[in-house]
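Ticket #4471: complex job returned nothing on first submit. Input attached below:
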Amino acid sequence: MIFLADFTVIVPDFGLLFWTFLIFLLFWFTIGKFAFRPIAEALKQREHDIQDSLDQAKKARQDMANLKAENEELLAQAREERSKILKEAKEVRDRIVAEAKDKAKIEAQKIVADAKEQIEHQKMAAIIELKNQVGAMSLNIAEKVIRKELAGNAKQEAFVNELVGEIKLN
Amino acid sequence: MRRYILSFICLFFLSTFAFSQDHGHDHNDGHGHEQQATTDPHEEGCGHIEEGEFNPGATAFHHISDQNIYNIGPFSLPLPCMLYAPENGWSFFSSGKFHTDDHGHGNGHVAVEGYVLVGGMVHNIRDNSFPDGEVEINNHGFHTTITLEDGKEKEVNAICYNDRLWAVDARSTADGGVFGGGITSFYDFSLTKNVVAMLIVFALMAWLFFSVAKAYKNRAGMAPKGVQTLMETLFVFIQDEVAKPFLGHKWEKFLPFLMSLFFFILGLNLFGQIPIFGGSNVTGNIAVTLVLAVITFFVVNLNGNKNYWEHIFWMPGVPAWVKTILTPVEILGVFIKPVTLTLRLFANITAGHMVIVIFVGLIFMFGKGQWGASLGTAVGSTVLTMFMMSIELLVAFIQAFVFTILTASYIGAATEEAHH
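Support reply: We reran it on our side without changes. The output follows.
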């Protein structure tokens, strides 16, 4: 048994049992409680913080994307609105122009018609005037012819010609 | 970098050689404890003491054992002795009173209050007629006799004083005679080398982790820095690879215990690797591993839930006749688990320490005091020892990890909720 008797590490010594028990419990209750526990808490807190930050960043990115989409939609809407307004404006313009043209045409026609009527009136008046003049002249001539007749034939003829030559159709 | 490695190898080689010289010197002086006497301890007179051969096994046992003195390099630092003998009461004194030689193997020149220091360990002189107080004894006169008692070989130590041999009692141990120990006339509650090593590791760990915890508090919300980063790697490894997978949502409750186990064992394993600093073999002492395993046993079983005990005593979903086999096996398992924890850590660390001592011991076996042969073997042993030490460094981490992960798995099994 010399082997085992000398091999002291395999026989548990009472003192060492006692001190190990005491020191390990001390280790557990001091370092475990006042160092390991706070470190674990701090690590957990940091893990949460990191997760929170990541989540927040993700959310911010999502928000940005949403905002961008919204903006684009708004922009598209505005564009559509603009083109619609432009289209309407064009229509209105075309309509106004067309109306104006129509109106102008009617007016012009009316003016022309009025003018024609006026001309007709003037013409009729002139013709009547002319007829009246011609009648008066004819009467004049006839009076003068009659008077000349009374004075000689040749002379009457020349006279008539003279008179006719005097007549100037204005 | 290469220069550092080279200088390290030189230093290592020199220290190995110095160690060998130191031992050679011991041996020639006859201070070694390997002497054997054929004299009967009860016989008058001390007889002739023969010097024994160098015994690498015994040397290794001596170097890995707990001591009442602390050897740093060639110096023996005294430690406080607290001894209790039921017949004589308590004795408190410094082990410096034994007057050991600085280069010796821890044999004291002086007996104090009936106690003597043999091989660095306190022993009690059985005979109460031995004079009290400090008595000069012949430190050459330690005798070891092998006697047959009840058909078993038994080692009897004795010292020579006043031309008479006085039988020296072995230390009381808690193995109940299984490993050759047992209760004797005294108990040693001294602050031994191992206890001092534990206190140093405790202080270092406390300083380290309190500063790390403080760093987390002061630098909250900032990235870890310095030693905080180093410790965080280990801490998070144990937390995420050991505590969380085995303990589920209850991991936080048991985290301080698992961390304490891991860092206590790791710290002691690594501390024991420092050759110049006593090379204390703390986690290679069965008392230490036994206490850790027993504490684990209580933590596991006191937290065991209904489901755990049901699986031990009446395994559900198994035919009744199988249960009659299974239940004893399960009950045995409850006690075998701490035993395996104890032995695994103890055997791994002790084996590592012993192999290193034996590699160095090769120098004496092959050298036999001749310079050339000693030097040649020293080169070889240095290489072997360095190789062994790097393995031991790995073992230090692996064994601390294994102890912790097994503890976590036992706690996990004990606290697991029923899931069928």
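The mean pLDDT of chain A is 87. Closing as resolved unless it happens again.
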